[in-house]
Design goal:
The protein is built from 7 helices and 30 strands. The protein has helices at residues 34-41, 58-65, 85-94, 115-124, 162-167, 196-206, 226-238; strands at residues 2-6, 27-28, 31-32, 49-54, 75-79, 101-106, 109-111, 129-135, 144-147, 153-157, 172-181, 211-215, 220-222, 253-255, 260-261, 266-267, 271-273, 278-279, 284-285, 290-291, 296-297, 302-303, 307-308, 313-314, 319-320, 324-325, 330-331, 336-337, 342-343, 348-349.
Length: 355
Amino acid sequence: MKAILLAGGQGSRLRPLTITTPKPIVPIFDRPFLRYQIELLKQVPEIDEIILSLNYQPRRIEEVFGDGTDLGVSIRYVVEPQPLGTGGAIKFAAGDYPSGPIVVFNGDVLTSVDLPAVIALHRSRKAKATIVLTPVDNRSAYGLVECDEEQSVKAFLEKPTAEQLVQSKCDTINAGIYVIEGETLDRIPADTVYSIERGYFPSLVAQKETFVAYTYRGYWIDIGTREKYQQVHHDIMTGRFSAPPFEGLAGQAVVSPDARIEPNVTIEGPCFIDAGVVIKSGARIGAHSVIGAHCHIGEDAVVAGAILWPHTWVDRGAQLGPLVAGRHCQFGRYVEVGGHALLGDKSIITDYSRL
């Protein structure tokens, strides 16, 4: 069985972080985001190859994961010659794969869905395709997916009207996780921009083919915005989503033994301090802060809920709020950066600045 991870997006909603770091490898604590999806796919022993469908900075991603040996999987890379849409990307990545189920993941999704259960449903119903759905509170903000009593998909409601919301009790949306029979990919035109959501799936409904839904009401999030990227860190630190490096350590301060912390430093959990970090005397690391590898936090500095990528320098007396800063950033002496700033790699905030 093959798995395809659609990881070709440019991550425009996370710019400027993704200008130099493709979204699939933005760090969640000390590991690239896509590693969480790869670990989930390892729940299914039948998956013998993971195909990464790429377009934006593919070499950077391949440098991180290699052939997958270090993670105990086999990874192959397919680079779209041009953006082909979700359906076109799946067909291109699948190549000549003739039949049988293919697991597909949208590259933005972090979840703990029971993937073996999804595949078991797909097989028990002898489905042409199975889609994972997840509930939302604000039904008017999403395209909804309606199912009948047997969980067969019957309609897609794109931007439902007020009347449709009154008539329908549906609260589920496409979670970006599918199981698709390889033989059905013939209906997707080759080398053409094609949407699986607007073309392939509606065609299954229109032709009354067996198309079923697995509704998952556990943890699911799209990390593609700054707000959601920060929320993922909060959720892992507090135990809402169980994952390394906070498995069994929810709510605590997770500090690398290779960090160098001077006397009179205040550390408030939950927070994460990676290897090679130096924290000078009098500094305070507040709850929900993430200090990446080899960062320097100067004397009397305050980091209150910020996410700092590796090799960032925070000088004496600086005060940082819940911002996100890329690699090799510099915060000068006594700067104050509050709010929810999003700073790209090598950003420099000069001494005494206030933002």
